[in-house]
Amino acid sequence: MSAADSGPATAREGRALPVVAVVGPTGSGKSELALQLAERLNGEAVNADSMQFYRGMDIGTAKVPPSERRGIPHHLLDFLTVRQDTTVAEFQSLARAAIADIQSRGKLPILVGGSGLYVRAAVDVLDFPGTDADVRARLEDELDAGGLAPLAARLALVDPVSAARIGDGRRIVRALEVQELTGRPFSSFMPAREYVQPTVQIGLNGDRAELHRRLASRVRGMVDAGLQAEVEALIPQGLREGRTARKALGYRQFLRVIDGVSTVAEAADDTITATRQFARRQLTWFRADPRVQWLDWDRPDLGGAAARLVNGAPGATPA
């Protein structure tokens, strides 16, 4: 390890650099890079993957097991049951409290995850409009009954900017809820990008065909590791009743296997396809942020290159 890779993280002006965010598509190696940075820079991890909030959803979310965390504390994992939900605004409060706690102990907070809006909520000046449980429930019932297309078409009429940016049911429901409650498009609540405190975002990306291979291998590995059994064990805990957890990648598909309407092979293939689509949406989101500094996940000195970006070493440029 070079001198540039060790010691406390500092900004170019010599001040302490409070926050690092490791972002990018699923399967790109964010969790491993966060561990490497935490080891090099005296850091702790703060989860920003919205599906890793759930206790018991371990295999299908690729949650790093405690035995593989190398002694690095991880925050905001496993704090919800599969029956529960949280909002981005609630996550914002939790994440900022965790970041402040880590900083108070002289450690570097390392936010890690691919849920783009959650990352922005943690690091950016961003306020969220309120919610209404009845409006949300009605829209979610419409989503369950009629599928994504009618709600997406409605959003395109009232908020074409958001409609062009988002494609998953939960966020479309939220955008329609905000528009109905406030009379303003959801996109109007996404201001210019401004950090709450100095932050470095490091994005991981690489060859698209390699990403597809990684994702297919990862899903098949999850199946071999017991994803179906994990889903079965969560049903008595309320997986079917949880509006968010039951729709997670892999869990939705394997509920169909348990119901006898899909085979394991079909569920694995469907999960691979859905995961590729999700990864593409993640890349679109993070590429829209010019502050993200991109590194190739295959570079041999990835941990060192990321640490140099954090430390602001002269000549440290994205791969």
From TrEMBL:
First-level EC class: transferase
Site feature (Interaction with substrate tRNA) residues: S115, R136
EC number: 2.5.1.75
GO biological process: tRNA modification
Cofactor (UniProt): Mg(2+)
Region described as Interaction with substrate tRNA: spans on this chain: 49-52
Family: Belongs to the IPP transferase family.
Function description: Catalyzes the transfer of a dimethylallyl group onto the adenine at position 37 in tRNAs that read codons beginning with uridine, leading to the formation of N6-(dimethylallyl)adenosine (i(6)A).
Assembly behavior: Monomer.
Name of protein: tRNA dimethylallyltransferase
Organism: Arthrobacter wenxiniae
